[in-house]
Design brief:
- The chain is α+β, with helices and mostly antiparallel strands.
- The chain has 19 helices and nine strands.
- Strands 1, 2, 3, 4, 5, 6, 7, 8 and 9 form a nine-stranded antiparallel beta sheet that branches.
- The model is unreliable at about 270-275, about 590-600 and about 625-635 (pLDDT under 50).
């Protein structure tokens, strides 16, 4: 959401300070390690150019990654800019003053106009959808309330459960493959490739968890991902058929006087004693194969992946369960349908009063309301029937998180563990420079033309040992980086979620209007006259009012609050509905709806009023003199009546 300055604070705070601090610290350490590596380039490149270039390449990679991480962490720590148009509207905002921001956020709105109207009239919520796919249904069965959490959290939980299921299926498929190979269904030749199958399993599982750690994006905020069960079935079928195919291929390869080598390699891989007699070259090859086989083990890394996957699932699903516990998927709507009323106002006066007066007084922090359905008023000129409607939402205000202490601790633990694993991966890469540069220095001093039967095997043995030492460190770094990235990206939504509270109002009004003609200025002393129209409307207003709790996710940069915002809870609001209806009826109840006058009519009315005032002013002395003369003529009669009254009172007193 682009920054639009306003002096009134909307109350939206930066939720990423802790996460950004840890990321900035890790970035600084990584950049420092890269700098240490680059400092060795000058001295190493003079004696061993290959070693110098190795320091340079690793140093540049670490430096670039460290500076990028440091910058991203500082972006999270620094000021969190929030514009006046934040957050994203629920539907397209038709407010005239907000068209710039409405066009920018048009692709990120979660609902259309018809859906908003349908939710208000039908007391339903289109946010919550039925899960699709085997994994999704299994997850929603185990955690029923996960249906009522925001889409990103649903997708992340579904993704990590899918990765766990794929890992278990891969292990099951590998067990099937091992069984098919060990019992001889695929032939003896397939045994040679069992280490290759194990390494393929390791790469596949690592790739599964790497894909599960994809970062949050806007597509995850619009809907639910699907995970099909077809991939699992396909994997099992491949694991059964591949050994058979490989057996056929190896049969063609070993068909040309290589059966002897095949038996030796198969026995070596199975750990059996070699009964056949070997020549010197075959003995050396067997020793190298045994060295390579003992220098590297896939089972260690598969076990490490299993441990990290269980920890990751526990943290992410625990956070998801705590968030689902807070869900309250209420769909309450206040439907106020008062009795029919008769008011002295035109139809457009009624709608304009509600739109420009009643709703404008509901502004929050003086931010314009969001108009999801602009005022549409229609009138039939034949019979006087009219109707109109509009939908508005008040400016959303932030709702403080009511986190349980366990939830906050789990967020901190997930983020801390993620950054620690990523830092360990960086340290392992930096530490791998020692054996790597040692070997490059050794390799730089080798004269290949002088290699013989004694120095050649030593060179090959050193190469194998160095290769697997470096490879082991890089595999460990890769696994730590995969799960550190996964925990960092999957814990991020639990920091970035922001909830808002606002009122959603749907106003409908229909009725009939009657026009009467009245004439002014027909009196004896009136010099001008005017005919005007008076409108009497019989209206039946209807209000749908709800107080919604919506959820969105904050980002970093200029689009920090442009994620889709979804309605999570809908509460009825009787008080607001009563206030809106009372204010509307109070405003138009005593109004006289007159037809609009042009300039000529307005001039006639002004002349009429001014002439009446002038005539009254001119006739005031005459009317006062007439009144005085009337009083003077009636004076003798009044004196006689007073004397008669006094005589009557005297006679009465004598009799008593």
């Amino acid at each position: 959401m682009s920054f639009e300055h306003g002096s009134l604070d909307l109350g939206i705070r930066n939720p990423f300070r802790f996460e950004g601090t840890l990321r900035a610290i890790r970035g600084g350490i990584t950049a420092l390690l890269g700098l240490l590596s680059l400092l060795n380039v000058a001295s190493a490149v003079q004696t061993h150019p290959i070693t110098g270039w190795t320091f340079a390449i690793i140093g540049f990679v670490l430096m670039a990654n460290g500076l990028w991480t440091l910058g991203r962490g500082l972006m999270q720590v620094m000021r969190f800019y929030v514009g006046r148009s934040a957050p994203t509207s629920l539907s397209y905002n038709h407010a005239t003053s907000e068209q710039d921001s409405a066009k920018r956020e048009q692709r990120d709105v979660a609902y259309d106009q018809q859906q908003i109207e349908s939710m208000l009239v039908g007391s339903k919520n289109y946010t919550f959808k039925e899960p699709v796919g085997l994994v999704a249904r299994m997850l929603h069965t185990l955690f029923p309330k996960i249906t009522f959490v925001p889409y990103p959290i649903q997708n992340l939980a579904q993704r990590i459960v899918g990765a766990l299921v794929q890992t278990l299926v891969a292990l099951f498929a590998f067990a099937i493959l091992s069984f098919v190979t060990s019992v001889g269904l695929a032939g003896d030749k397939a045994t040679i490739l069992m280490p290759f199958f194990a390494f393929t399993l390791l790469c596949y599982v690592a790739l599964v968890w790497f894909r599960a750690g994809r970062p949050l994006n806007r597509s995850l905020g619009r809907g639910i991902e699907t995970v099909s069960a077809f991939g699992f079935v396909k994997m099992v079928a491949v694991c059964v058929s591949v050994p058979v195919i490989i057996n056929v291929i190896l049969g063609k390869i070993f068909a040309y006087e290589l059966e002897h080598y095949q038996a030796v390699i198969a026995a070596q891989l199975r750990g059996l004693e070699i009964e056949v007699e070997l020549n010197e070259g075959m003995t050396w090859a067997t020793q190298m194969l045994d060295l390579a086989y003992n220098s590297y083990s896939n089972s260690t890394w598969l076990g490490l992946i299993f441990v990290f996957s269980v920890i990751s699932c526990g943290l992410v699903l625990g956070l998801t369960a705590l968030r689902a516990k807070q869900a309250n998927p209420t769909t309450e709507i206040t439907d106020k349908l008062p009795r029919t009323s008769e008011v002295g106002a035109r139809p457009m006066d009624i709608f304009n009063e509600f739109n420009h007066q009643v709703m404008e007084r509901r502004r929050y922090k003086k931010v314009p309301n969001r108009i999801y359905k602009p005022l549409s008023a229609r009138q039939n000129p034949n019979n006087g029937e009219f109707d109109g409607e509009l939908i508005q939402e008040t400016q959303p205000k932030t709702v403080e998180k009511s986190d349980e202490p366990v939830s906050k601790k789990m967020r901190i633990a997930s983020t801390s563990l993620a950054q620690a694993l990523l830092l360990i991966a960086t340290l392992l890469v930096f530490y791998s420079l020692t054996p790597l540069t040692t070997y490059t220095s050794f390799f730089d001093g080798v004269v290949f033309d002088q290699l013989n039967d004694e120095t050649g095997p030593a060179f090959v043995q050193t190469t194998i040992e160095s290769f697997f030492t470096i490879f082991t460190l890089l595999v460990a770094a890769t696994i730590c980086a995969i799960f550190g990235r996964l925990l960092s990206n999957l814990s991020h939504p639990f920091w970035s979620e922001i909830q808002f509270e606002s009122s959603l109002v749907y106003f409908k009004c229909k009725g009939t209007v009657k026009e009467d003609t009245r004439t002014f200025g027909k009196g004896y002393n009136d010099s001008t006259s005017l005919e005007t129209s008076v409108f009497t409307s019989t209206i039946q207003p209807r209000l749908f009012v709800t107080r919604v709790i919506s959820s969105t996710f904050a980002g970093i940069g200029s689009t920090n609050l442009m994620f889709p915002r979804h309605i999570m809870t809908m509460h009825g609001d009787e008080n607001l509905a009563d206030e809106l209806h009372h204010e509307l009826m109070h405003s138009i109840g005593n109004r006289a709806g007159t037809a609009a006058m042009n300039d000529e009519q307005r001039k006639v009315v002004d002349e009429y009023n001014s002439s009446n005032l002038q005539m009254k002013a001119e006739s005031a002395p005459e009317r006062l003199a007439n009144r005085s003369s009337e009083l003077s003529l009636d004076a003798p009669k009044a004196q006689a009546a007073l004397a008669q009254k006094e005589d009557h009172e005297a006679e009465t007193s004598l009799e008593n």
